[in-house]
Specification:
about 325 residues; mainly alpha; Tyrosyl-Transfer RNA Synthetase; 2 domains; 3-stranded parallel β-sheet; about 55% helix; about 5% strand; globular; binds tryptophanyl-5'AMP
Length: about 325
């Protein structure tokens, strides 16, 4: 069976962007692959974190995975830092990654431009290599992610190919899976920017937001001065973003949504979107409450860790042998 690896960073609360761009696809793909879904806490500490908050979020995200429909009987859910081979492999791969390659990573470049490099950790700079280690450790064939992670999957492929050329077949070269619609959900207040955990509060819907807050955020989403609803992300980024969200949440195509609302005004459309979104998110919140503090969640994460550890240990031993590390 082919394998999937993907992860979410516990650096903030889960957003509608994470759900649409990544997690909703995990739930669709889980039937056809051997899936490892990870809470990547080592990635979160590339920027300063409060330790209590971080601990809480690790379990929040694991519980949300399940609440969103990831079936723990079919998949393996685990916490990255509980499997030490991730950092071990990351170091070995760092020694096979060029500084020039890391300099081209747009996520780091954007952060460095905004904040300057003096206050940024070197972990943030080498972060794509840790992500490569996550993926290559498990011979993942497919990596479902949002658009913003595409470049990181590409560097993973480059590193895998380079390593295989130098040491012989070691890693599966993974493909990314990026959805056609919803790969980049935009901020509701600044629809030319990605919706993000760390950005504008009003522009970002959290999966655990109260329904009244979700409604408020949708109703106050920035649109444009026209009155007609049609899809044109360049000219109408706000409305086009809302159309994409509606399409994903209702399993419709963009064209079907545009047809449905061609005679409606923006207010009517936003109200319909808020209704559908709340209808989708409420059951997730209910399941989250049931599972978040259950023993079942810890059991699932223990079993996930054991499965991941088994695969990862086999792989890291093979890699060490190929590189010539250790005595055996
Ligand atoms: P993270 O935690 O920032 O985001 C988790 C997933 O959500 C997607 N996403 C979005 N999709 C659409 N619209 C948005 N506004 C939006 N915001 C986030 C992301 O693309 C991602 O798929 N580096 C990764 C985590 C990671 C990982 C991995 C992923 C670490 N190791 C190995 C895959 C495989 C990250 O920071 O995602």
């Amino acid at each position: 069976m082919k394998r999937i690896f993907s992860g979410v960073k516990p650096s903030g609360d889960l957003t509608l962007g994470n759900y649409i761009g990544a997690i909703s696809n995990f739930t669709k793909l889980q039937h056809d692959y051997d899936c490892l879904f990870c809470v990547v806490d080592l990635h979160a500490i590339t920027v300063p974190q409060d330790r209590q908050e971080l601990k809480k979020r690790v379990k929040d995200i694991a519980a949300l995975y399940i609440a969103c429909g990831i079936d723990p009987n079919k998949t393996h859910i685990f916490v990255q830092s509980e499997v030490p081979s991730h950092t071990q492999l990351a170091w070995i791969l760092e020694c096979h990654t060029y500084i020039g390659e890391l300099n081209r990573m747009t996520q780091f470049k954007d952060k460095a431009q905004k904040l300057g490099t003096d206050g940024l950790s070197s972990g943030l700079y080498t972060y794509p290599v840790l992500m490569a280690a996550d993926i290559l450790l498990y011979d993942a064939d497919l990596v479902p992610v949002g658009e913003d992670q595409k470049q990181h999957v590409e560097i993973t492929r480059d590193i895998a190919i380079r390593f295989n050329n130098r040491y012989g077949e070691t890693f599966v070269v993974p493909e990314h899976f990026i959805p056609k619609v919803g790969a980049r959900i935009m901020d509701l207040q600044e629809p030319t920017k990605k919706m993000s955990k760390s950005e504008n509060d009003k522009g970002c819907i959290l999966l655990l937001d109260e329904p009244s807050i979700i409604r408020k955020k949708i109703m106050s989403a920035v649109t444009d001065s026209e009155t007609q609803i049609y899809y044109d992300p360049q000219k109408k980024p706000g409305i086009s973003n809302l159309i994409s969200i509606y399409a994903i949440i209702t399993n419709k195509t963009i064209d079907e949504v545009v047809e449905e609302f061609k005679d409606a005004n923006y207010g009517t459309f936003k109200k319909a979107l808020a209704d559908k979104l709340i209808e989708r998110i409420l059951p997730i919140q209910e399941r989250f409450k049931d599972i978040r503090n259950s023993k079942e969640l810890d059991d699932i994460l223990d079993a996930g860790r054991d499965y991941a550890m088994h695969l990862a240990t086999r792989k890291i031993n093979k890699v060490m042998k190929k590189v010539g590390l250790g005595r055996h």
